[in-house]
Amino acid sequence: MTAAGSGSFQDGRIASKRLVMLVALLLVSCCLGHGFGDEDHVEVEGISSSCMESERRALLAIKSDMYDPDNWFSSWTGKDCCGWRGVACDNTTGHVTKLDLHYPYTYDEWDIPDIMETMGGSKVNPSLQELKQLKYLDLSMNNFSHAPVPKMIASLVHLEYLNLSNAMFDGPIPPQFENLSNLHYLDLHGWYDDLHVDDLDWLSRIPSLKYLDMRYLNLSKATNWFYVINFIPELEVLRLSDTDLPYVPSPLPPFNLTAIATLDLSWNSNITSSMLRWFSNATSLEYLDLSDCGNLTIEPLQVALASLINLKELDLSFNSLEGEIREILNNVSSRGLKHLDLSCNQLSGDIPPGSLGDLEYLDLSGNQLMSSYIYLLLWGISQTCDI
Fold this sequence. Notes:
The protein is an alpha/beta fold. The protein has helices at about 1-35, 55-65, 110-120, 225-230, 275-280, 300-305, 325-330, 375-380; strands at about 85-90, 95-100, 135-140, 145-150, 160-165, 170, 185, 195, 210-215, 235-240, 260-265, 285-290, 315, 320-325, 340, 345-350, 360-365, 370, 385. The protein starts with a helix and ends with a strand.
């Protein structure tokens, strides 16, 4: 009787221990599944990651301040924000890494004024700064009603891609953008914006920048523009059209933009002859737009064109260039030149035979060329010729 009772007691203790161990294992499993200190990360068996609840709430707050006439945000429902339109997450952590809220329809740049007139206003919700792991942010082609560029964007230090173009922002570009040292792509251009930069020093803190577009910004006080940009060694695309660039005195620093492939300085009147000679070092250049720069002369152009062996597109229109057209064409060293615009200059003379190479587009309108060479142009250009 005593032995039987003792055995029953021992069995009960063993069962109790097993129950405690089972509960402990369940607790450990729960912690491993959800992570320590990461209670809003919902892990689902068979799925590597899903949406952070705190970031889902941040996205919904952002949505609440965005103009949405066509139900662009209709997919923004449910728990997993990683599947929402314009949103992408890291496959491992579940953090939101991409937010693309740009105007979703195809448009031509000339359509922008009409689009802006009909577009309702939006606001950048402060919850944006909660998306701390963002690498890609596109707010382009929205109407932010002439608000200042939000400084909080500078807190998104993991950004590699930032597009704020044609977003109806006004005022200065925050110098705090220097914190975005991981940026590869920065687009700030805008027709309707009234943006300006008085000092470009912050750009020197973004050494890995490959694409920079500041068209139509006011850079008239950024006297250091040339020196700052020259020391962004990985820059491949630079667009500074119609920015009122300040005059750069000689001597110029050694050329450092060894990767530059696209350069647009059009509609700026302070592009000097010494700059043109400086461009001759840009042997990787494929696209060059110096239209409507006002002070260009043929001699430094000859020096530059003789060195730009990879050039595919060249626009020198609206410069009142004087002289023989052969002085330009005979110095084009690139055999791959496809697009040449020399319209609205004061060029004269004839076209040297064989100088047109493999051109597909040629515009010589608004010059003083000999009409007897029209047949040569039409014969030599395969696609478009405007004389």
